[in-house]
Write a structure and sequence with these properties.
The chain is mainly alpha-helical and 193 residues long. Helix content is 91%, strand content 0%.
Length: 193
């Protein structure tokens, strides 16, 4: 392209009727006109080279800018995907928290019910002990047949009392396990919340 431009420029300066050359001039003036033309052509060549260098420089810069823009677009796309993944994880965490809260509420309800039963059983145990003590006192003042009957009743009450104590111990262990599980769930809920 540069060569074509130079040829056209040269042809334009040497054409008849060009402003730099007059037909009526002398040979000496013609020589001066050719020197001026050569200087002009040299200037045009330098201008063309500079223009070519500027054009290449701009092309290189445009390529770098285009590459940078592609990288930025890729980063934005990646960030968009990560944001979508983060939103999905947040949704899952919220669902898990909801389930945990429901389980915690159920466990607390069970623990409260077990505590109530345990309190009732302890009260029953106290009443049974009082009854046993009263019976023992009563037995000391009663006849042998009646005493045998009462001993059998006491034995039945004792076995019932032992059963209640065992059940009470099981309930206490269950409550401890549930409380421990509740604390774990609360810690997990606080960590996720």
């Amino acid at each position: 392209m540069m060569d074509t431009f130079l040829w056209l420029l040269c042809a334009a300066t040497w054409l008849p009727g060009a402003p730099a050359i007059c037909k009526a001039q002398t040979d000496q003036n013609k020589v001066a006109s050719k020197n001026e033309t050569n200087v002009l052509m040299y200037g045009m060549l330098q201008f063309g080279e500079t223009l070519h260098q500027v054009s290449e420089s701009i092309g290189t810069k445009m390529a770098r800018i285009e590459s940078w823009m592609r990288k930025q677009e890729a980063m934005l796309e990646k960030m968009g995907q990560e944001a979508g993944q983060a939103a999905e994880k947040e949704k899952q965490i919220r669902q898990v928290l909801g389930k945990l809260k429901g389980q915690m509420a159920g466990l607390q309800s069970e623990a409260e019910g077990a505590k109530d039963k345990l309190a009732w059983m302890e009260q029953e145990e106290g009443e049974l002990r009082t009854t046993v003590i009263n019976l023992e006192t009563y037995l000391q003042n009663y006849s042998p047949n009646r005493i045998q009957e009462l001993k059998e009743r006491v034995s039945k009450h004792s076995s019932f009392l032992e059963g209640l104590q065992q059940w009470s111990q099981l309930q206490k262990q269950t409550i401890k396990k549930q409380n421990k599980h509740l604390r774990k769930l609360q810690k997990l809920s606080e960590a996720l919340g």
